[in-house]
Amino acid sequence: MNTMLVNKETFNLKSTITDDWGGSHRLVLDLEALATAEDWKLGISLPDGYRIDQIYGAELTQEGNNNYISGKSWNKSLNQGGKTEIVLIVDEGDRRASDPIKPEFLFADSVSNSVGNSSNESSSIFDINAVIPQDWNGGYKLEVNLTAESDAQDWKLDFNFPYTIRETYGVDITDNGNGSYTISGQNDQVNLQSGQSIKPVFIIDDNGQEAIVPEFMNSGSVTPTEPATPAEPTTPTEPATPAEPTTPAEPANKLMAEASVVQDWNGGYKLEVDLTAESNAQDWKLDFNLPYTIRETYGVDITDNGDGSYSINGQNDQKSLQQGQSVKAVFIVDDNGKEALVPQFDGAVVGSEPISEPVTPEEPANTPDPVEIPDSQGESVGQQGKFS
């Protein structure tokens, strides 16, 4: 039987610091099983700089940047009402002058098979909310809203999960083996600013079992950025002589798209579109026509205008894009066994930043026509297009 993280309702847990030696301390865990717990495992999150030096009454394992404790031969499985005591000797690293801090304990979520909202315990770095919007025989769709509560550079989140994750959208995922996974940001979302949100989506195969929400754990690589040190004031210099007015450069196209059919099966296909802003674009929107039904959309919001006409725009903090920022949209399309087509995107960028007028007006150069994106027939192909 595989060792699994226990649910919050499995244990009554009490932790006590019984000895403080000024640089290390003794932590006693008293566990009482509120329900039968077989091959139990409990995640333990230590403050930065702490490490477990010795452990008595349990086994200590490490997966990635996370520590886990599990029972030994005599307390590996506990019946309801069973009790056990575990002792940890904790090295406090460089925090020798501070009072010892108790660790946080990580449990598996106890979400039932109902479809609805569920909030996981969050850390000081992320506010995490999860929802299971669809649940079908053999699998389900999990949506997770991650909001950074402080700046996070090269962020990662770890979690344990007993099911196979078939598809992931909006984040990069690493399968660490034995049901352990790590997710991290893509493209310009590798670093998140305080208040910035992303919405990853997971398609999960559960073999007809209960749909559950994983418990996300902060990785040690999630670090808030240090505030910038203000520069020393300097003596103001004489204002420079204004330069002669010049004619502004021809405005760049607002968005560039690269699209490809990455999977094609009998009855439908998967279309991926990479959108990159060539200049700042506020409240951007792209229109396109497609004669098929778009069953699922990830990474963008979509509007069905009827008669095969669609519009897409950004989600959350990607409603407006800065120059160089990228968005990856994914579409699951039902084609009823017909040819897989790549649509031609026609969208004007709505509310983009205005181009300032030159001081000395001149006739602007002719704006090049947009590059046409031919429809794809049959085979999976990629193409580029620019939008003015």
What would you note in describing this structure?
It is a single chain. By secondary structure, this protein is an all-beta fold. Helices cover 0% and strands 44% of the residues. It contains no helices and 27 strands. The protein has strands at 4-5, 11-20, 24-33, 40-45, 51-56, 59-63, 66-70, 83-91, 104-106, 117-119, 126-136, 139-148, 156-160, 164-169, 172-177, 180-184, 197-198, 201-205, 217-218, 255-265, 268-277, 285-289, 293-298, 301-306, 309-313, 326-334, 382-387. Strands 10, 11, 12, 14, 17 and 18 form a 6-stranded antiparallel beta sheet that branches. Strands 1, 4, 6, 7 and 9 form a 5-stranded mixed beta sheet that branches. 26% of the residues are buried.
Q: Output the radius of gyration.
A: 27 Å
Order of helices and strands: EEEEEEEEEEEEEEEEEEEEEEEEEEE
Unreliable sequence segments: 109-124, 219-231, 248-252, 351-365, 370-374, 376-388
- Main β-sheet, in a few words? 6 strands, antiparallel
Derived from helix and strand composition plus strand pairing, the structural class reads mainly beta
What would the average pLDDT be, to the nearest integer?
76
- Binned strand content: 35-45%
> Distance between termini?
58 Å
Helix content: under 10%
Shape: elongated
Oligomer: single chain
Q: Would you report the number of β strands?
A: 27
Count up the helices.
Answer: 0
Write the topology of this structure.
Layout: E1 4-5, E2 11-20, E3 24-33, E4 40-45, E5 51-56, E6 59-63, E7 66-70, E8 83-91, E9 104-106, E10 117-119, E11 126-136, E12 139-148, E13 156-160, E14 164-169, E15 172-177, E16 180-184, E17 197-198, E18 201-205, E19 217-218, E20 255-265, E21 268-277, E22 285-289, E23 293-298, E24 301-306, E25 309-313, E26 326-334, E27 382-387
Parallel strand pairs: 1-4
Antiparallel strand pairs: 2-3, 3-8, 4-7, 4-9, 5-8, 6-7, 10-11, 11-12, 12-17, 12-18, 13-16, 13-19, 14-18, 15-16, 20-21, 20-27, 21-26, 22-25, 23-26, 24-25
